[in-house]
C-alpha cells in the first residue's frame, strides 16, 4: 500500500496535556501534510512540511519530519476538548506522476475535559 | 464552510442502482479530487481532474466514473451499486495540479446502499 500509517490508532488524554501522533511511510516523498477530521465531517488541512524541511510550527501544532526514518510526528500542545478528532497524515510520493496525496488510516484523539 | 460544496449530503439507495454525486470546488481552484472513506479501508483516492482533464486515477472501480465540466464542477457517477459501496465520498479541491498548498475538503456525501 502507498498509504502512510499513523500510530497510535487511538489516543486518549486529559485536557492540557500534549498529544503526539506519528506517521510512517514507505517511499520517498515530496511533501507531507497533516489533516484533522471531526466525526463524519470533511478533512481540514493543518500543516504541510516539505521533504527538505525538518520542523514546522503553527500555533499549538508542531510537525517534524525525518526523511531518513521515513516518519513524521504531529505534536499538539496544551490540548483542548475541541481538539478531539481524527488526525491523518497524507504523503505524495515522488514516483506518482499525478502527485496526488495518499492518506493514512488516522489516529483518533480524544481529549477529556 | 470550506468553500467546497458537495450534494447531496445523504443518499440512501438500493443495490443495483446508479447515483450521481456532485462537487463544486472552492472558487479559483482548478483541481478536483474524489476520495472514498469507509471504516475498513480508510480514505482511498479515487480520481483527480485538473481544469477539465483527468490527471490521475487511484483505486476507482470500473463501475464508477467521473468528469469535470467547463465550469469546473465535478460529478462522480456510481453504478450497479453494491452493499460494499456504502461509504462517505469526499470531494477536495486545490488551486494547482498537485495540491502542494493542501486540499480543501467538502463535507462529504454519505452513501448508504441497502
Listing every helix as H and every strand as E from the N terminus to the C terminus, the arrangement of chain A reads EEEEEEEEEEE
Beta-strand content estimate of chain A:
over 45%
Low-confidence stretches of chain B: none
**Number of strand segments of chain B:** 11
The general outline of chain A is: globular
Roughly what is the average pLDDT of chain A, rounded to an integer?
90
Indicate the proportion of strand residues of chain B.
over 45%
Largest sheet descriptor of chain B: 7 strands, mixed
Task: Give helix and strand order of chain B, one letter per element, not per position.
Answer: EEEEEEEEEEE
Number of strands of chain A: 11
| Terminal CA distance of chain A | 37 Å
What percentage of residues of chain B falls in helices of 4 or more residues?
under 10%
Radius of gyration of chain B (CA) equals 13 Å
Count of alpha and pi helical runs of chain A:
0
Protein structure class of chain B: mainly beta
Q: What does the largest sheet of chain A look like? A: 6 strands, mixed
What gap, in angstroms, lies between the N and C termini of chain B? 30 Å
Blueprint of the fold:
The complex is a heterodimer of chains A (113) and B (114).
Chain A: E1 5-7, E2 10-14, E3 19-24, E4 29-37, E5 43-50, E6 55-58, E7 61-66, E8 71-76, E9 85-93, E10 101-103, E11 107-112
Parallel strand pairs in A: 2-11
Antiparallel strand pairs in A: 1-3, 3-8, 4-5, 4-9, 6-7, 7-8, 9-10, 9-11
Chain B: E1 5-7, E2 10-13, E3 19-24, E4 31-38, E5 42-50, E6 53-57, E7 64-68, E8 74-78, E9 87-94, E10 104-105, E11 109-113
Parallel strand pairs in B: 2-11
Antiparallel strand pairs in B: 1-3, 3-8, 4-5, 4-9, 5-6, 7-8, 9-10, 9-11
Describe it:
The complex is a heterodimer of chains A (113) and B (114). Chain A is mostly beta strands. Chain A is built from no helices and 11 strands. Chain B has strands spanning 5-7, 10-13, 19-24, 31-38, 42-50, 53-57, 64-68, 74-78, 87-94, 104-105, 109-113. Chain B is globular. In chain B, strands 2, 4, 5, 6, 9, 10 and 11 form a 7-stranded mixed β-sheet that branches. In chain B, strands 1-3-8-7 form a 4-stranded antiparallel β-sheet, with no helix packed on it. The mean pLDDT of chain B is 93. With 114 residues, chain B is an all-beta fold. Chain B starts with a strand and ends with a strand. Helices cover 0% and strands 53% of the residues of chain B. The A-B interface holds A 3, 30-31, 33, 35, 40-45, 48, 88, 90, 92, 96-106 and B 2, 4, 33, 35, 42-43, 45, 48, 55-58, 88, 90, 92, 97-108, 110.
